Amino acid sequence: MRVGIWEPASGDRQAPTVLAVHGITSSHIAWPLVAQAMPDVRIIAPDLRGRGRSRTLPAPYGMPSHADDVAAVLDSVGVEQAVAVGHSMGAFVSLVLADRHPERVSSLVLVDGGMPLLPPPGVAPEDMSMAILGPAAERLQMTFPDHEAYRDHWREHPAFTEWVDLTTAYVDYDLVPAAAGGFHPATCVDALNEDIRELVDGDSLLNALARLRHPTSWLLAPRGLMDEVPPLYPQAAREHWLGEHPQISMAEIEDVNHYTIVMLQGGVDQVVPHVRQALAG
């Protein structure tokens, strides 16, 4: 596995640690702004199996595999316990990690993810990847001649109307050579399809929620993957899951979408206080 690590500026080996887990078609390059905002904290951010530079790791995928993988990452860097901060699918991974390896997690910060997704009306579970991810899933099937063409593709994405240095780094890292020439996105299509099915009603997720015993914050974006309303978790979904799990603390992060909640400064400035509260707890 490829793992990004931001060590505390002080060099303090006893500094608190955040395990930052990215989304379903993302990589550890989603987290630099969070790391910059917390220079006193160690940030450990793996590329999950089938993504980024961990893309060639084989199946099985799924939340139990990812959870065991990130527990092994903590082992490899000598960290006994961390606050798990998961964005999108990373929030699901974090929940299952806390269930399968409860001693490794002190608390959970779930960023626009974690609670089971409710399929749109008339959509079969096996069609969820296209129904929920839409262009993000289509992108994985595409080939691009060079990095600039891929940047141009992302510049048309409605969720990325503000382009910053992190956006360029994120997009460039996501492009890898294609066997037939050119470049394609790093995420393995088989990994995406296997993983997203679990986000609806996977046993590991439902069991993790039923046994949830860690302090948990659920941070939500008011707009979705395409900067649209309703968001990934509309009001009915929020009420449903908070009714099922009243011990979870929910907060809406203002004026962000599913991506910019961790990839633009305005979202990071609101998310980081919740992470610091989890570290203090």
Automatic annotation (TrEMBL):
GO terms for molecular function: hydrolase activity. One of its GO terms (cellular component) is membrane. The keyword Hydrolase applies. It comes from the Bacteria. It holds the Pfam family Abhydrolase_1. Residues 16-132 form the AB hydrolase-1 domain. This is Alpha/beta fold hydrolase.
